[in-house]
Amino acid sequence: MRSLNRVSVIGAGAWGTALAGAAARAGRQVTLHARDAAIAAKISATRDNPRLPGIPLDRSIIVSHDIAAAGRADIVVIAVPAQNSRAAIAALAPHLPSGTPVIASAKGIEHGTRRFMTEVIEEAAPHAVPAILSGPSFADDVARGLPTAVTLAAKDDALAVALVHALGSAAFRPYHTTDVRGVEIGGAAKNVLAIAAGIVVGKQLGASALAALTTRGFSELVRLGCACGGRSETLAGLSGLGDLILTCSSPQSRNFSLGIALGRGEQAPCDKLSEGALTAPALLELATAHDVEMPVAQAVAAILAGRLTIDGAIDNLLTRPFRAEG
Ligand SMILES: NC(=O)C1=CN([C@@H]2O[C@H](COP(=O)(O)OP(=O)(O)OC[C@H]3O[C@@H](n4cnc5c(N)ncnc54)[C@H](OP(=O)(O)O)[C@@H]3O)[C@@H](O)[C@H]2O)C=CC1
Ligand SMILES: O=C(CO)COP(=O)(O)O
């Protein structure tokens, strides 16, 4: 196995900065790439990223605007929003040596193409080796070095193990698997379901309703995941159930917070990324293509598109025919 010491993280947002910190803590030589030269210079000089205010950037991390330099790495992590990942990978691709592992870390499905993030890597950088990292992990927690566990998947087991050893530390514990699709379905679906969970909280429907919604949401996630070839143990693991529990219960989650605002009838904050809102239509298209029923995700997509009121969606869900659990 080739050396995996030099790590480049593309995207100097909250997640990219947190992952750069985790890789530095694991002892790697890290470059954090910001597409904007002024932002790169500012973060480099102040050692502070306004997207993670008050958490100093590890001194060893090089912050750069030079995409060619970022491509000269043993591992590249893509940490930009799902809908921007293709553009970021395409800009990187000409500078990437053949066979470089490229780890997707966005949680979403691409609009229009319905591609998962590793498929986007396959298309935009066919000479790279795709992998995916996902799981219950707020950027703020990871950046502060609080204990976190995630799942890291690559088709090749030996590569998944090597990537885990390269990026893992006592505080940041990746578990490896070859179930790439299972890992990416969990991350994409949980964001949509977290919006529904937030609506339940914003509408003050009670803790019992929140538990019911989260559990039925998990059934949807598993149904779609299995239909797409994911393994049930992955879907019940960190990147599926684990992340669903986190994002359906914590106002730290932007998706959950969006749901709370919607449930309260408030204006949703427009400066915060909600991957679930962007992924909802693509998730439903995927579900339809696989003949999988996802009533909760369907309600979220309809509410966001203005096709259904929140009260109408709640009424629809509560009056569905009684059925066997599963
Ligand atoms: N925040 C979190 O706790 C976690 C986030 N994630 C996932 O990580 C992904 C990114 O989220 P997050 O970091 O929070 O988002 P942020 O909004 O904090 O940051 C997004 C970053 O991506 C950059 N970017 C956007 N488009 C491009 C592009 N084409 N090329 C290069 N850089 C680009 C932005 O740069 P610019 O400033 O120039 O616009 C910005 O730095 C999402 O899919 C999210 O689900 C996963 C786990 C935890
Ligand atoms: O994915 C996350 C935690 O695992 C972050 O969730 P939000 O994007 O909803 O903030």
Helix-strand blueprint:
Layout lengths: L5 E5 L3 H12 L3 E5 L3 H10 L15 E3 L2 H5 L3 E4 L3 H11 L8 E4 L12 H8 L4 E6 L4 H5 L4 E7 L2 H11 L4 E6 L2 H23 L4 H21 L4 H4 L2 H10 L6 H11 L10 H15 L5 H10 L5 H9 L8
Helix pairs in contact: 4-5, 8-9, 8-11, 8-12, 8-13, 8-14, 9-11, 13-14, 14-15
Bound molecules: NADPH dihydro-nicotinamide-adenine-dinucleotide phosphate and 1,3-dihydroxyacetonephosphate.
The site of 1,3-dihydroxyacetonephosphate has 13 residues, from helix 8, helix 11 and helix 12.
Structural write-up:
With 326 residues, the chain is α/β, with parallel strands linked by helices. It has 2 domains: 6-178, 3-Layer(aba) Sandwich (Rossmann fold); 181-319, N-(1-d-carboxylethyl)-l-norvaline Dehydrogenase, domain 2, CATH 1.10.1040.10. It has helices spanning 14-25, 37-46, 67-71, 82-92, 117-124, 139-143, 157-167, 180-202, 207-227, 232-235, 238-247, 254-264, 275-289, 295-304, 310-318, and strands at residues 6-10, 29-33, 62-64, 75-78, 101-104, 129-134, 148-154, 172-177. The chain has an 8-stranded mixed β-sheet with strand order 3-2-1-4-5-6-7-8, with helices on both faces. Helix 1 links the parallel strand 1 (6-10) and strand 2. Helix 8 (180-202) packs parallel to helix 12 (254-264) and helix 9 packs antiparallel against helix 11. The model has no long low-confidence stretch (mean pLDDT 97).
